[in-house]
C-alpha cells in the first residue's frame, strides 16, 4: 500500500498517517520529521533547513525530493509507505511521479484532509499548550505567527491537480 497524505498544517496528517502505517504495517514517512531530525543532529541538510523551517517556509524542492527518494529505497519501505507532508509543491509531485516510475511502482491513493482554517488555528494553539503542559518540547513553528506563514505556503503551493491525476492512474 503506497499512500500520500496531504492537508494543511495542523490538519492531523501525522496522527492519521501513524494509524494508517500501523494498520497496514508500513512505515510512516514524514518529511517534517526527517527534516527535524536532521536539524537536531546538525547534519548539512539540517543546517540548510533550520532557519527556513523556523520561519514556516518551504525547504527547497531539490532538498526534500532527494531526502524522499533516498528514504523510499530503504528496505522497510519495500512493500509500501505512507508519505506525510510530501509532495507539497507541483515540482515535488512531478518528482514523485518520476521516482516511482523509475522503480516500477505507483501510488495506490492520495488522501487530502480538509479542515476549516479557524479550527486549524485553535488546534495549533492547543497543540503547543498540550506539549508544554506535558513537559514536551514545543515545536518552534507551532505558534500563531509562523503558523500563518505555513498556511500561506500550503495554500500557494499545494499540488492538488497533480495528485488527482496521479491517483487516477
Ligand atoms: P510538517 O511537520 O509537515 O508541518 O513540516 C514542518 C516544516 O518542514 C515545514 O513548515 C517546512 O518548512 C518543512 N517541510 C516539511 N515537508 C516539506 C516539503 N515536502 N517541502 C518543503 N518543506 C517541507
Helix content: 55-70%
Strand order of the largest sheet: 2-3-1-4
Order of helices and strands: EHEHHHEHEHHH
Number-wise, the strands total 4
Strand content of the residues, in percent?
5-15%
The biggest beta sheet is recorded as: 4 strands, parallel
Class from secondary-structure proportions = alpha/beta
How many individual helices? 8
The distinct bound ligands, ions and cofactors come out as: adenosine monophosphate
Distance from N terminus to C terminus (CA atoms, Å) equals 15 Å
Q: Indicate the low-confidence ranges by residue numbers.
A: none
Mean pLDDT: 90
The Cα radius of gyration reads: 16 Å
Shape: globular
Structure characterization notes:
The protein has 169 residues and is α/β, with parallel strands linked by helices. Helix content is 59%, strand content 9%. The chain has helices at 13-24, 31-41, 44-55, 61-71, 90-102, 117-133, 144-157, 160-168, and strands at residues 2-6, 28-30, 81-84, 109-112. The chain has a four-stranded parallel sheet with strand order 2-3-1-4, sandwiched between helices. The longest helix has 17 residues, at 117-133. The two termini are 15 Å apart. The model has no long low-confidence stretch (mean pLDDT 90). The structure holds adenosine monophosphate (AMP). The site of adenosine monophosphate (AMP) has 17 residues, from helix 2 and helix 3.
